[in-house]
Structures are given as structure tokens and as C-alpha cells.
Design goal:
The protein contains no helices and 19 strands. By secondary structure, the protein is an all-beta fold. A hairpin with a 2-residue loop joins strand 5 and strand 6.
């Protein structure tokens, strides 16, 4: 009686970082009497791949390598299949950030925080105030924006970009300054006595 063909490994989910080497092994057992009559075929997302070896190797993984992989081992009598779900990940990394802004009261100001990664990172902001931390809602692109900033908005803000592969954090200092008072001096000529000219100064705060 011939032994049936079967797979020896059951791992079905693989998570791999961008740029690493992906190795999927089609490990099986079958009746030794079949000899060289065993055929191995690979497919990804239902499409055949040009591999017939028991080991599938992709040396430099990209986002396009993510998907569903299958290895089918066929003997003259039967076949066995092993499936994998491969997820390609890249830790969150903040790519555009400003760590210090000095602006005047009433100015329009933004604190940018753009990040890359797989899956797409989630951006969150926290305003630090002593031992307290207050969540701040970012705009659609992950940046904080004030159309007319007030002095009360001054402070330290922390941006965090995170996904399932990792987290990146950066802090920014926002300083909102009041407009500087300026003294404008205007000289006025006045009459003192008949035939004499006097001068007086008038200062105006603007």
C-alpha cells in the first residue's frame, strides 16, 4: 500500500520586513517508491510562478511581493497543498517634521508630521504640559494647523507615527510671541512768546 502525500509544515502566516529575504519551504512527505515522479508547483494570488523547487526564495522583498502563496506537490496518485499569507511590512518612519516654530500671535501656522511605512502609519499628536498630556487632533495629512494662533497655543507638541511594524516619535516646540510695542515720537512746533519758537515731543504707542 502506498503512503499518501502530505505536508509537514502548517505555518500559514508570514510577516516580513521590506528589503529582507523571503523563504517559503514546501516540506512534504510521500511514498519513496514514486522516486522522481513528484512535481512541485508554486503560485501567487492564483497565478503560476516560474518555480519548481521545494524552496521559494525572494532575496529583496518589495510591497508587490505581498499576497497569497501556494505550493502544490503532485504524485501520480495524489497531491497536497500548503498555503501562506505573506504580509510585507515597513516600520513607521517620520520623513518630514519641524522641531521648532516661532510665530506672532494671529499668524497662520502648521506643524507638519509626514511618515512612511507599511501598512500606512497612523499619525497622532499629544501636547505636553508638565506631567499632563493632552491629545490634539491632526488634520487629514497628519499635520497640526492653526489659522490664527494664540499665545495660549505655545508649548511642546509630540507627533507619533505608528503601524504594526513599529513606532517613530518626534517633538516640536511652538513659541507664539506677542507683537512688540513701538514708541513713535512726533515733533510738534508751537508758539511760545511773540517772536519765539518752541518745540514739544509727543509719543504714541503703536
Amino acid at each position: 500500500m502506498l503512503s499518501p502525500t502530505s505536508m509537514l509544515e502548517t505555518e500559514a502566516s508570514v510577516k516580513i520586513s521590506l528589503g529582507e529575504a523571503l523563504r517559503l519551504g514546501c516540506v512534504f512527505q510521500t511514498d519513496h517508491r514514486w522516486g522522481g515522479a513528484i512535481e512541485t508547483r508554486w503560485s501567487k494570488d492564483g497565478l503560476s510562478l516560474p518555480y519548481q523547487e521545494e524552496l521559494l526564495l525572494i532575496s529583496n522583498v518589495t510591497s508587490e511581493d505581498e499576497g497569497s502563496y501556494s505550493c502544490v506537490v503532485t504524485s501520480p496518485l495524489d497531491s497536497a497543498t500548503q498555503d501562506w499569507e505573506v504580509a510585507v511590512v515597513d516600520p513607521a518612519f517620520i520623513t518630514h517634521f519641524t522641531d521648532y516654530r516661532l510665530v506672532l500671535v494671529g499668524s497662520s501656522v502648521s506643524l507638519p508630521c509626514l511618515a512612511s511605512g507599511l501598512p500606512t502609519p497612523t499619525i497622532s499628536w499629544v501636547r505636553e504640559s508638565g506631567l499632563l498630556q493632552e491629545e490634539v487632533t491632526p488634520g487629514p495629512e497628519g499635520s497640526l494647523h492653526w489659522p490664527a494662533v494664540t499665545k495660549e497655543e505655545s508649548g511642546r507638541y509630540r507627533c507619533q507615527a505608528s503601524n504594526s511594524a513599529g513606532t517613530d516619535t518626534k517633538a516640536a516646540e511652538l513659541v507664539v510671541a506677542a507683537h512688540t510695542a513701538r514708541l513713535q515720537e512726533e515733533e510738534v512746533i508751537v508758539e511760545r512768546d511773540a517772536g519765539q519758537i518752541g518745540r514739544a515731543s509727543c509719543r504714541e504707542r503703536v
